[in-house]
TrEMBL record:
InterPro entries: ATP-NAD_kinase_N, Diacylglycerol_kinase_cat_dom, Lipid_Phosphate_FormReg, NAD/diacylglycerol_kinase_sf. This is DAGKc domain-containing protein. Gene3D superfamilies: Probable inorganic polyphosphate/atp-NAD kinase, domain 1. Residues 1-159 form the DAGKc domain. PANTHER family: DAGKC DOMAIN-CONTAINING PROTEIN, SPHINGOSINE KINASE. One of its GO terms (biological process) is sphingosine biosynthetic process. GO terms for cellular component: cytoplasm; membrane. The lineage of its organism: Eukaryota, Fungi, Dikarya, Basidiomycota, Agaricomycotina. It comes from Leucocoprinus leucothites. One of its GO terms (molecular function) is lipid kinase activity. SUPFAM superfamilies: NAD kinase/diacylglycerol kinase-like.
């Protein structure tokens, strides 16, 4: 087993180098763990290059001690999977595999640390900035625990059919794949990184996007596990078959406009306190599925068109949904009352459609500037005009692929 220590010196507050030298290396040395290489990333994308170079030289199973945020892990996952964009059909249930088993010891040094805080949800009052909190994955590795296999979401951006010149693009996520408000926020927040190095940049970007609606058609693809598209029912507190899902017509089509369309794998939160897909933890999936959180404003009984007044009227409501994510994931219980107010009781229409299924297809309307944006673990991609995106969860495996000590 080879051990690689890799850190991103600029992620989060820029403390990964110091943390590696002060805490990680001494702890590995105390446990007599031999290290093959200690590497620092020198530019965006470098983590991916370093890992694929390493895997070209050695086919042995590899453990990476990674001090970074989710973006660096995303680069590693993407670079080490042999990706063939040609001859790829999203219905093929092929497993995405790196050439060797890659196990990751995560040290949260990024801004949001979604995967880490999902694996180690902070208990009330726990200081997520403390050294001990940050060393939990390393301790799990040193204690000889098994890594948790990662489910991956493979997303392909297709050009319009008939465009024989254009090629499709493929990206793999280990945390989040989204469109709409979340993708817009990430798109704008990257530009704010220098001005606001912490989580605040997401809030500033969110304020700039409160009134946007997104025109698209979404298709929900059945899970390879159950063959169904499921939706959360807060009354029974279970996932049930989506009312529009039928065995003979297993793809559920949703029309827009949308405000929120976000899917996750492996995580119930995108920041320590932002539990946007809480059921990933409280009702865990037993296979390759994505949890999808959808908000479509026309489900609000007080709104029937997408004019400026309606958009203005909905701004507070979408923030109530976001606040629900910050309030321990209570967004899943929100409903509209008969006047369209967002409440947490009663039997009005649910504000959030919380779906669990095998994946999704997103077809943006041609006239919508922001609907083609897709966020894959913070990376922003754009669907070509007239094209679409298809995202499919891939089967985890315990003896190969990616695992994270958790
Ligand atoms: N030396 C470097 N100089 C500039 N950018 C770098 C360097 N090394 C890595 N990067 C880039 O830094 C970006 C941010 O890293 P990462 O996503 O791990 O942290 P973060 O954004 O602070 O945290 P999180 O993803 O948890 O919110 C990555 O996109 C990566 O490509």
């Amino acid at each position: 087993m080879s051990i690689l220590v890799l850190y991103n010196p600029v992620c989060g507050s820029g403390s990964a180098k110091q943390f590696t030298e002060t805490h990680i290396l001494p702890l590995l040395s105390q446990h007599n763990i031999p290290i093959d290489l200690i590497l620092a990333t020198e530019y965006p994308g470098h983590a991916g290059t370093l890992l694929s170079d390493y895997l070209k030289r050695s086919s042995a199973d590899l453990t990476i001690v990674l001090a970074s945020g989710d973006g660096t892990l995303h680069e590693i996952v993407n670079s080490s999977i042999l990706q063939s964009t040609q001859n790829y059909t999203p219905n093929e249930h092929q497993v995405l595999l790196p050439p060797a088993k890659v196990s990751v010891v995560l040290v949260p040094a990024g801004t949001a640390n979604a995967l880490y805080s999902s694996l180690f949800p902070p208990v009330k009052g726990e200081d997520t900035g403390s050294v001990e909190y940050k060393l939990k994955s390393l301790r799990a590795f040193l204690d000889g625990k098994e890594g948790v296999p990662l489910t991956l979401a493979a997303t392909t951006l297709y050009p319009p059919t008939g465009d024989s010149q254009a090629v499709s693009t493929r990206v793999v996520s280990g945390v989040v794949t989204s469109t709409c408000l979340h993708a817009s926020i990430l798109y704008d927040s990257e530009k704010l990184r220098k001005e606001y190095p912490g989580l605040e940049r997401f809030k500033v970007a969110a304020q700039r996007n409160g009134k946007r609606w997104y025109n698209a058609t979404a298709k929900l693809l059945p899970s390879s596990l159950s063959g169904a598209v499921q939706i959360y029912d807060p009354i029974s507190q279970k996932f049930i078959d989506h009312p529009e899902w039928k065995k003979e017509k297993p793809i559920v089509e949703l029309t827009g406009p949308f405000i929120y369309f976000l899917s996750t794998v492996n995580v119930d939160r995108l920041e320590p306190e932002f539990r946007v897909t809480p059921l990933a933890r409280t009702l865990p999936s037993s296979g390759a599925t994505q949890d999808i959180v959808i908000v479509r404003p026309l489900r609000d009984p007080s709104i029937n068109k997408g004019d400026e007044v309606s958009r203005e009227q909905y701004v507070d409501k979408i923030w109530q949904v976001m606040k629900g994510a910050y309030a321990d994931g209570s967004l899943i219980d929100l409903r509209y009352d008969e006047k369209g107010e967002v409440v947490s009781e009663g039997n009005g229409p649910l504000v959030v459609e919380y779906v669990r299924c095998g994946g999704w297809e997103w077809i943006p309307a041609d006239n919508d500037e922001r609907a083609p944006l897709v966020c894959a673990d913070g990376d922003i991609l754009t669907i070509p005009v007239g094209g679409k995106a298809i995202s499919v969860a891939r089967t985890p495996s315990s003896d190969t692929g990616f695992a994270v000590y958790g």
